[in-house]
Specification:
The protein is built from 4 helices and 9 strands; from the N terminus they run E-E-E-E-E-H-E-H-E-H-E-E-H. It has 166 residues and is α/β, with parallel strands linked by helices.
């Protein structure tokens, strides 16, 4: 899939999972350096807020906004996923008072490839493209968005509505 990063066309390694398909299982690294697996959230709705790096303005804004939204989504866990090290994610959350989302790093997993969001070329090759995936309690993908320009924010309202409709 083509996306734009700082005016340059960049490809991702694939495409997001299709709506109606089973979400790929994942294993990520949590704040305590322990594995976080999709199976850990069985029976819950998931919002995967996927982004290149918490150390950029738009990524930080999205994490803050999903932190606000998460509190109003019943039986839902919002997971903020990047290839940042857990130390950077922890630092950001501590400074910002982020407590309603789970942060997870894909730095030692195939998450980016499995979800089709790893950038295949460009200056930040291998980082994750800005995307949102909503998964229902049965593990079915009910909403996806890959933001076409990494400088744009995701559609928070559509993602939240997809959770409520699931």
């Amino acid at each position: 899939m083509d996306i734009i990063y700082r005016g340059q066309t960049v490809q991702t390694v694939g495409a997001l999972p299709e709506v109606g398909s089973q979400a790929p299982e994942f294993s990520l690294v949590g704040p305590d350096l322990e594995d976080i697996a999709s199976a850990d959230f069985a029976g819950r709705r998931l919002v995967l807020n996927i982004f290149p790096s918490i150390d950029t303005g738009v990524c930080a804004t999205a994490a803050r906004r999903f932190n606000q939204i998460a509190d109003d989504l019943p039986n839902t866990t919002v997971i903020c996923v990047s290839r940042d090290l857990p130390f950077a994610l922890n630092r950001f959350c501590a400074v910002e008072g982020i407590e309603n989302v789970v942060t997870a790093s894909a730095f030692r997993s195939t998450f980016g490839e499995d979800y089709g969001v790893a950038m295949a070329n460009g200056p930040i090759e291998t980082l994750l493209s800005r995307s949102v995936v909503v998964i229902d309690e049965e593990g079915t993908v009910v909403y996806t968005e890959q933001v076409s320009n990494t400088s744009d924010e995701p559609d928070y309202e559509r993602a939240a509505q997809a959770v409520m409709d699931a």
